[in-house]
Design a protein that fits this description.
The chain is an alpha/beta fold and 142 residues long. Helix content is 38%, strand content 13%. It has two domains: 95 residues, no CATH class; 41 residues, no CATH class. Helix 1 links the parallel strand 2 and strand 3. The radius of gyration is 15 Å and the shape is globular.
């Protein structure tokens, strides 16, 4: 986790962060994008939630690669996430897939890794990006 040297004077700041980091105390974001992959992530979110709220940025929770444990776990995580006040839970989870894992390994978008374009993971990430752009007033076109 490394912050850009200058993030002041931007019209829109979106922070994509795991739910257990110090960035929350260093950045004032308009939108906090928080991936949740299980119980520990939910517990960590509880630890940083007061700091997220202090920044007054919107909070979007994304179920991320939690589907390997089964539908019941995904639904349980969704139910828990939906109880977080002042937070929005994005629709479809980002799937645990080879393309998504490769994207994380390569530090590249899923559509830019070998055999990633057109996969379920690619479609899920593209939909998330479109939804976020729409939420931020940009019409959702990638």
């Amino acid at each position: 986790m490394e912050l850009p040297a200058r993030i002041a004077n931007y019209d829109l700041v979106i922070a994509d962060c795991p739910p257990a980091i110090e960035i929350v105390d260093s950045v004032t974001a308009d939108l906090w994008l928080v991936p949740l992959d299980g119980r520990l992530a939910m517990e960590n979110l509880g630890n940083i939630y007061p700091s997220l709220r202090r920044t007054q940025g919107a909070i979007t929770l994304v179920l991320n690669r939690c589907d390997l444990a089964g539908k019941r776990v995904v639904e349980g995580l969704r139910e828990a996430a939906e109880q977080i006040p002042n937070a929005v839970v994005r629709g479809a989870p980002i799937p645990a897939s080879a393309a998504i894992a490769k994207a994380a390994e390569y530090f590249r978008p899923v559509w830019d890794v070998p055999y990633g374009k057109g996969t379920q993971g690619d479609r899920a990430i593209q939909q998330l990006c479109a939804d976020l752009l729409t939420d931020c007033g940009f019409g959702g076109k990638l």
